[in-house]
TrEMBL record, chain B:
Entry protein name: Phosphopantetheine-binding protein
PROSITE patterns: CARRIER
Top-rank taxon, per record: Bacteria
Gene3D superfamilies: ACP-like (1.10.1200.10)
Domain Carrier: 3-81
Transmembrane segments: none
Species per Swiss-Prot/TrEMBL record: Streptomyces goshikiensis
């Protein structure tokens, strides 16, 4: 199948199978599946989904064969896939399930542990598809189905305007917001990206990012769309590339903070990634210093810096890095728009400008949020077209665009989108009676969240964050939180955020984590034994 | 001996996690993410433990579940020492 014929997201997998018959499609732990073997897993899960006419299929699974097969099975059955992270906070999981209107869920072993948290968000009649033993306490009305025999499916009437997936991002009002992406949106991205890179059968892609983060869609479908193998790594393995030499990864997707973390921790020595041919940076601003460090570690790799919000299907502009002479802290340009994507930069007055907010329209751009109320203020009518306002500030010049920051309080932490308002709302609920200031301070690897709670009864960090962790994923939990008896106010009677930020920086510096352990604590060479 | 050695694990954790209270005992079921153990800190912790305890984490132990709480980490270290 030629790339231009592919319109449905799952057809990129079929294309890979044609390009690499009998070749490896997926490596999980010590297990490797060929395209044919993974396809059999997909049809086994898709059978019961198609038979039930499922429309919205949750995938409560992570980094397992069932997770990848389940995502593809949802598409193959003609449904919209809704990735769900088993380690998501319980309250968030139920809220997302209810908002998505799931009528079926594929569950793997990790997901089974999170099922009790998900159940309150499921409607009666919802189908659970799993090969696992019967979960003990299924409420009445939830139907259990086993994967069927592998085989062809009869699903008709599918088209490029069907929803392919629904992903939830941080919402400033305190609840996650759903971003629906159609097959035509994400397939346009895959087609463009495959033209940018020389990849094919024999390549080995890292798979680091959770399916709930849309950068994973690039990892999966560029690998499968080119007939390559997807090699699954957890987030700790991803930060230990020296331990991964035998995987011979040739294509890395990385957030700049992952690369910066490796570099700062001395884990990116020159030449340590000799097999890498292509590196895709995405998710947050890339600095010249990080690009240079990566180039030293992977001298044979092309480095592509992509930009795009989830609303525009992974990425919609790109700039191939060349050994520039810029200072280490300079931001690498995000380059030019992909084919089929149109860009508009508007100044504060709403008129087109060289510097201002970036607006997008075109084949990759979504048509609106799951909850239409979220569309308010996010679209701009200009020149007879409807443009999505990204909230990203850019400067456009002869060399393309450069990212300058945000128009609002959204921040990127380790590549994840975080709305300060969502963190504040969760902390207020976790520490009733306190005033909450959530701030970012610059760390070695990018912004870090910190929070100051003021007033109310004294609280300890672990207690507050333990409660907040019911609503917030780990990357949204402040790295440090402290309590003060009285609010710290400026002359206008408002919370003095600059002063709190300086205080946070002092606190972080005075208690900086140390890699060395005091000599008196070094034990005998034998390892400890658990007490239980 | 066991008590002393859990104290050593506590010391190693304290050295890396500024948010931990200086004096209190660290409960075995404390979720380490709530005291600042992110992915980067986890990798540094893993290397430190390998150096100090003379063990090597096998591939299957290099997983978030190992580092969820002091107790889960303690259990894996015990298995590595005896296995």
């Amino acid at each position: 199948m030629a790339a231009e014929e592919v319109v449905l997201l799952d057809q990129w997998f079929d294309r890979g199978r044609t390009l690499a018959p009998g070749g490896p499609a997926l490596r999980v732990g010590r297990q490797t599946l060929t395209y044919e073997e993974l396809d059999a897993e997909v049809t086994a899960l898709a059978g019961p989904l198609a038979a039930a006419g499922s429309r919205r299929v949750g995938v409560l699974a992570a980094k397992s064969v069932s997770a990848y097969a389940g995502f593809l099975a949802a598409l193959r059955a003609g449904a919209c896939a809704v990735p769900l992270a088993p380690d998501a906070p319980p309250d968030r999981l139920a809220a997302v399930a209810a908002a998505a209107g799931l009528d079926a869920v594929v569950v793997d072993a990790t997901g089974a542990a999170a099922l009790p948290a998900l159940l309150p968000g499921l409607a009666p009649g919802t189908l659970l598809v799993t090969a696992l033993p019967q979960p003990a306490d299924l409420p009445p009305g939830i139907r259990l189905r086993r994967p069927g025999p592998p085989g062809p499916l009869r699903v008709t009437g599918r088209g490029p305007d069907d929803l392919a997936y629904l992903m939830f991002t941080s919402g400033s009002t305190g609840t996650p917001k759903g971003v629906p992406i159609r097959h035509r949106n994400i397939s346009a991205f895959v087609r463009t990206a495959l033209e940018r890179y020389e990849v094919g059968p024999g390549d080995r892609f890292s798979q680091i990012y959770e399916l709930t983060f849309d950068l994973s869609m690039s990892e999966l479908f560029l690998a499968w769309g080119s007939g390559a193998c997807l090699c699954v790594l957890n987030r700790i393995q991803a930060l230990s590339p020296a331990r991964l030499a035998d995987q011979r990864i040739t294509v890395w997707h990385a957030t700049p903070s992952l690369a910066a973390s490796l570099h700062n921790a001395g884990r990116l020595p020159p030449g340590c990634l000799p097999d890498v041919r292509t590196t895709v940076f995405c998710g947050e601003p890339l600095t010249s210093g990080t690009a240079r460090a990566w180039h030293g570690a992977a001298p044979g790799s092309v480095i592509d810096n992509l930009y795009g919000p989830t609303e525009a299907s992974v990425a919609c502009t790109g700039h191939v890095w060349d050994a520039d002479g810029l200072p280490d802290d300079a931001t690498v340009p995000i380059g030019r728009e992909f084919p089929g994507v149109h860009t508009l930069v508007v100044g504060a007055d709403g008129a087109p400008a060289d510097t201002g907010e970036l607006c997008l329209r075109g084949e990759q751009v979504f048509t609106g949020y799951l909850d239409p109320a979220e569309d308010e203020g996010r679209f701009l009518d200009h020149d007879g077209h409807r443009w999505y306002r990204t909230g990203d500030l850019v400067r456009r010049d002869a060399g393309g665009m450069t990212h300058l920051g945000r128009t609002d309080t959204q921040v990127k932490v380790q590549g994840y989108r975080v709305e300060i308002g969502e963190v504040s709302a969760a902390l207020r609920a976790a520490a009733p009676g306190a005033q909450v200031a959530v701030l970012t301070v610059d760390g070695d690897t990018g912004p870090q969240l910190v929070a100051c709670l003021m007033g109310g009864p004294p609280v300890a960090q672990a207690d507050v964050l333990g409660r907040a962790a019911r609503r917030l994923p780990a990357y949204m939990l402040p790295r440090m939180l402290w309590w003060l008896p009285e609010p710290v106010l400026n002359a206008n009677g408002k919370i003095d955020r600059p002063l709190l930020r300086r205080a946070a920086q002092r606190r972080l510096a005075s208690s900086a984590p140390s890699e060395s352990v005091p000599p008196e604590s070094v034990p005998s060479p034998s390892a400890p034994t658990p007490s239980s | 001996m066991e008590t002393i050695r859990y104290e050593i694990l506590e010391k190693i954790l304290r050295a890396q996690l500024p948010a931990l209270e200086r004096e209190a005992v660290i409960p075995q079921d404390l979720p380490l993410a709530t005291v600042g153990l992110d992915s980067v800190a986890t990798v540094v912790l893993m290397d430190t433990l390998e150096d100090i305890c003379g063990v090597t984490f096998p591939d299957e132990a290099i997983a978030p579940a190992t580092f969820r709480t002091p107790g889960s980490l303690w259990a894996v270290l015990g298995r590595l020492a005896s296995g």
